[in-house]
Design brief:
The complex is a heterodimer of chains A (744) and B (269). With 744 residues, chain A is of the alpha/beta class. Chain A has five domains: 7-89 and 137-160; 199-307, Helix Hairpins; 312-469, Histidine kinase-like ATPase, C-terminal domain (Heat Shock Protein 90); 486-611, Rossmann fold (3-Layer(aba) Sandwich), CATH 3.40.50; 626-744, Up-down Bundle (Four Helix Bundle (Hemerythrin (Met), subunit A)). Chain A has helices spanning 10-59, 61-66, 69-82, 138-189, 204-264, 273-304, 316-333, 355-371, 404-410, 430-440, 466-485, 500-512, 523-532, 549-557, 576-585, 597-611, 634-641, 645-672, 675-691, 695-709, 715-740, and strands spanning 86-93, 99-101, 114-123, 126-136, 312-315, 337-341, 349-353, 378-385, 390-397, 444-450, 454-462, 464-465, 492-496, 516-520, 537-541, 566-571, 589-592. In chain A, a hairpin with a 5-residue loop joins β1 (86-93) and β2 (99-101). In chain A, α5 packs across α12 (500-512). The longest helix of chain B has 19 residues, at 31-49. In chain B, the strands form three sheets. Chain B has a six-stranded mixed sheet with strand order 2-1-3-12-4-13. In chain B, α2 packs across α9 (215-230), α3 (61-70) packs parallel to α4 (80-90) and α4 packs across α11. Chain B is 45% helix and 21% strand. By secondary structure, chain B is of the alpha/beta class. The termini of chain B are far apart. Classes of the chains: A alpha/beta (744), B alpha/beta (269). Chains A and B meet through α3 of A and α6 and α8 of B.
Amino acid sequence: MSKINWWRSLRAQSYLAIFSFGIMLICLFVFYTLPEQARWVNDGLSKTAQRSLQQLSTSITTPLLTRQYAELYEEINNQLEIHPNWKAIKIIDAETGNQLYPLDSWNGAIERGDKLLNQDVVFLDKPLAKITLVVNFTSEINESSKLHYTLIYIQFSILLLILIGLAWLVDLRITSPLRALEHAFTRLAKGDFECHVDKQQHNEVGSVIHGFNQMVNDIAGNQQKLNSLRIQAESASKAKSDFMASMSHELRTPLNAILGLAQLYDYDQSASEIQKNNAKRIYGAGEHLLLLINDVLDLTAIESGNMQFNFEYVPIKRVIEESVEFVNELINAQSISLHLEGLNSLDGLCFYIDERRFKQVMLNLLSNAIKYNKPQGKIYIRCNVLNNRQCSISVADTGYGFTEEDESRLFKPFDRLGAETSKINGTGIGLVITRELVERMQGKITVQSEVNQGSCFNLLFNSFEQSTIASHKQVATENSEHTNADALPILKVLVAEDQVTNQQVLKQQLTLLGVQSTFVSNGEQAWQILQDNTFDVLLTDIQMPLLDGLELTKRIREHKRLNDLVIIAVTANIIKKNIDDCYTVGMNGFLTKPVELVQLKTLLIEHSSVAINAHIEHTPSVEPSTAMYDQLDMSLLVSMLGDDTDVHSMVFNAFIQTAGEQVKLIKAYADSQNYADLSFQSHGLKSASKSVAAIKLAEICQQIEHFANDSSVDEQLIKDLTFNFEQVMTQLSHYCQQHESPSN
Amino acid sequence: MKYLLIIFCLIQSSWLFAQEYTFGVVPQYEPQKLNAIWQPLLDEVSQQTGVTIKLITVESIPVFEQAFANGDYDFAYMNPWHSVIANEKQGYIPLIKDAGRKLQGVLVVKKDSGIDDLSQLQNEEIAFPAPNALGASLLMRADLAQLYDLSIKPVYVQTHSSVYLNVALGTTKAGGGVLGTLKQQPQNLQDKLTILYHTREISRHPIVAHPRVDPAVQLKVQQAILAIGQSEKYKHLLAGIPIIQPSTATLDEYQQLTEWGLRSFYVEN
């Protein structure tokens, strides 16, 4: 309720008006009416006195003429007696100048308020005497004022009573109902619909109150409707959320199988090249599908506020480099050139961000810049360190751009600019997610664009000196290096998974990783088997018949004997609640479907020190030197497959056995200008090359693929491909020989 | 002889008592006041004497003078000079006078006027109430003219008060009055005046009887009034007139006014 100043309230104002009116009346009476009255009384009395004096002059003419002064004296004394305001009379003989009256000496007018009146006594035009009269009307004026005061007092009292009555009436009939209304409005504003005001009057105020009460009823009715609609909307939203979560699970589960199984072809020596290529295509399509699902899930998470962030200090230069690397292939395919400016200025600077999410942002921006660029266009990534310890990273393209009006549509879900006309595919939620991610990571995103000139997305983040946070990170890095350096120990792993296909994928992956695995179809079976056997790690699905993963974990954590068991959830349901639930019941880790080999391995290694005490002796691997393997990006290899050279060798062998065939096919298709197959094969080789971290080779493949898509072939590229492929093959063979020999 | 007369009178008294007598009063005051003063006295006299007396009042002195000149009243109360005139015209005889007081005129002058001798008033204006006012005017003028051989200009100003005021205001050099009225004036007026001369004394107003009235009745009335004056119980009835000390009046004591030559100053109506 807005506080009303007391002097602004209707009540105070009405009383104030009455008080002012009263004061005004009093002033009018005191300063005007009364003096005027006094003057009027004085004048009136003076005139009357003058008339009386005139009469007196007539009546004393005879005594004066006959010198009958006794009669004169008697007359004058009589007059003085009957006129109390006549103070004194003097009569001077006109002829002699003698004072005829009074007998004694005359004092004249001496008092305040005395007034002199003169009258000549004339007989036959001859002046007989001159009468001087002293009058004083003070007592009359006082008497009149007193009377007037009394009158005013009475009038004023009556007026005051009337006005107070009026004010009271106004208060009762208007102000009080208004205050009641004000109070009711306040209650209504707070959502109290039982705030009806009593309608006691059958006038305009009553109508207003009646209107208010009706309005309250209407609002209450509408509110009820709104509530039911809100409940419906909420339940719909919940249903949508549930549906999305469920869909995510339902989509991820088969996708897991698809991706996992498609991946296995790379390791299947018996599979033909075509099968392997097809499997790669399946994998690529699956990956794309996974991206879309992730996008939708991200949007759902944003809308429901469930988006998860793992904040840490991340060297920003590396993240940008990695992001750029990620889209390099795409850029090359589109004949777009990418220019990095000021990257070195980011040396030694960290952002406090979720690295994965930041990469997602960069990839989104970059992929947009690629998608909406013109052919032969350019992309600029400009990095600037601003004065106030902020960094701006802008991604500018030379594409078609958009108008200012379109800017507002940019960040609206599913409202994709040019969706009607453009052939470019997209969901229209990328930028929505991007902006949300940036803002959630305490950054800012702005955009400028000019039609046909291109657009520029600018990110602004706070930056931190790496040196100030190095000590903490150093320890962490050392630890991780230590564990990473270790080979995957011999572990006994129990997998609880109801889906047979997923069981197979995991089985293959675990076998590949050299891990002993036992499979059960649900939590109950897992529980039973745990009673008699000892395992180091339990990989469990969350949603399973009979006993789900969460319940299983709870049961396990209640038994001391099984305290050391590492439990890792494997689920497609990656919404926040699920993750929280997993950690709440006591799980140690979390894997999302589709499970990547590297992730699986990393996680197992991570928990191996917990799982087993036996220290596996570290066989110092020959540090791959960049000089020796200049075709291979060893750091990328490690990040993909870990640093286990055996695994590397296994993957390399698979490449060695299959890639040669692919190169032959590429050459053949290039010669025969079979662009569709050329594109397919070069894409396949590109993926395979990436798997062995042969980045240059992959880039060449991508360019070939890009040309093939444009129905052309660059002979030089084919030559480069042959040359690079030979080198890659040599280096891979060398690596395998070097690392396989001890085990052989 | 004397006894026979008395016996005769007593025999005659039965029808004499039945007769009603009139009593005229000089209009010194208005008739109501005169009634209030005289009626109780006359009632008492009637009571004591068995003589029925009716009070007659008139509006003015001239009417009164005319009335007694015509002999309208059986008894009358009048001033001394009137009694002289009445005696001359109708033979009225004085019965009662006030022995307590005498009538005497006074001549007043303004205190600071510097007049201390009557000779200073030669040919000056002197105020008098009226020409026929006995003490103030007639006696004074007679004295001044006859005893001091003064020639004056009389100014008649109706009342004694006017006389004194004229003197006090200096409009006349002197004024004639009587001591009684002078003493009745306000003190401030009296303070301004001083008495320069006193006239000769004369008896005050008499009650007179017409000669047609039976002397026995005259006697009865005279005796009754004298008795009332003696009685403590009825004395107050005479005080209002005023007659302080009633006594038998004689014609002679009033006749001396004629001797003093007042007639030449009297103004006939």
